What we know:
Layout: H1 2-17, H2 20-61, H3 74-77, H4 84-102, H5 106-115, H6 129-144, H7 150-162, E1 165-170, H8 176-186, E2 192-195, H9 204-207, E3 208-211, E4 216-219, H10 221-229, E5 236-241, H11 248-251, H12 253-259, E6 268-270, E7 287-289, E8 294-300, H13 311-316, E9 318-322, H14 341-354, H15 359-376, H16 381-397, H17 402-413, H18 423-441, H19 447-459
Helix pairs in contact: 6-7, 6-8, 7-16, 14-16, 15-18, 16-17, 17-19, 18-19
Amino acid sequence: MMLFSANDFFHQLWNFLSSKYAMIVYVALILILIVILTIFVMVNEHRKAEIYRVTDEEEIIYENPKDAPSSASPVESSRVPETPSAEQGEEEPKEENKTEEKSRFYMLSQIDREMEHYEAPEYDDKVTLKEICERFRRYAGSRLGLYYDIQDIRRFIAGMAVTHIMILQGMSGTGKTSLAYAFGEFLRNRTVIVPIQPMWKERTDLLGYYNEFTKKFNETMLLEKMYEANYNDEIYITVLDEMNIARVEYYFAEFLSLLEIPNQEGRNIDVVSDRWENDPKLLKNGQLRLPENMWFIGTANNDDSTFAISDKVYDRAMIMNLDKKATVFEEGEEESMKISSSHLHRLYKEAMKEYRITRRNLNRIKELDEYMIKEFHLTFGNRIMKQIRSYVPVIVACGGTELEAIDDILSRKIIRKLESQNPVYVRNSASGLITYMDELFGEDKLPLCKAYIERIKRTV
Length: 460
């Protein structure tokens, strides 16, 4: 009887432990454990961040160890001696540090403090656009071992005159990222390289986000550089590396829209949705001005792992193809230089005034526009015409020719759009288009446009 009762007890116990209600309890216990572990990890990470922040503050006090007395640590040596006369003065720094600790933007607040003692460097503001191109090419070759054709350097510098967003395309290994990096080194202002991630979809992926748990804003390097650029007149280059591994029109949408606004005062991008009293100085109502002295250089690959770049992006950006490696050359050593953004913009304006596109070539472009509308239902539009009027004079000021510049921008902005047309119709009409351009501009005067058309014919 006892054996039966014991078996019956264990049988009922097993039925209970394997019942539906018991399973619910198990799941609840597991979820509770997961929540406890998550909170534990987040608290530890927060403590580590606080330790690193305090360490950074200690290092900032004495950037040069020689400044600190040998008998004391940097933190101890920075303290005010405890004397009656200093007691009143101690209260203000303590209160200030207390306020700084509450700031949700640690790095931006740090930039505010550093810029209180900022002195602008001496700029080489007598240099011309042609000299910039030639000296940059020599610097990249002699100092960095990076070799580019002078035509590519001119296109790069002139493209910056048209818009603040450029796209460098071409085969892997042709130096797309290196070109933008080298220009930052040449200007003595290191280029910021932002590796784009496949899952990026919005501006917070570029700028960072507010962490509700830590009550801090997770600042990115791009946000820091944008904030810093608003303080000075240096030229900032930001590389969006492999920009089309995610959809550009998603994560970069607000930047594209703001860069279209002609008035710089209206180019303000949202960083946070609210305002705190101790927010950084240049953050106005949660917005930061998109700096006029920062250019975004995107590198793009065309393979199965990337997305096609939409016409919306292509139309707003300047496109540059790096399809081949340049020949190694020897032209002597060249030093870096410091150029202000104001001087570069002034050079662009002077070039557009001095080297305005000729009336003859404007008429040719207008006739080609009418032909493209009639034959392919493609038009240049106001935006592209404005880009042509900006790009061509700067190429001339950089040492190029007017037809060379027209050939380049027409191939990137107009002929490229034939790829989206009916391929059979384009193949049948391609020869007529080439003949018309030869008649209009002169035989073989637009080699890039003709080569692009021939390539489209071959791929049909």
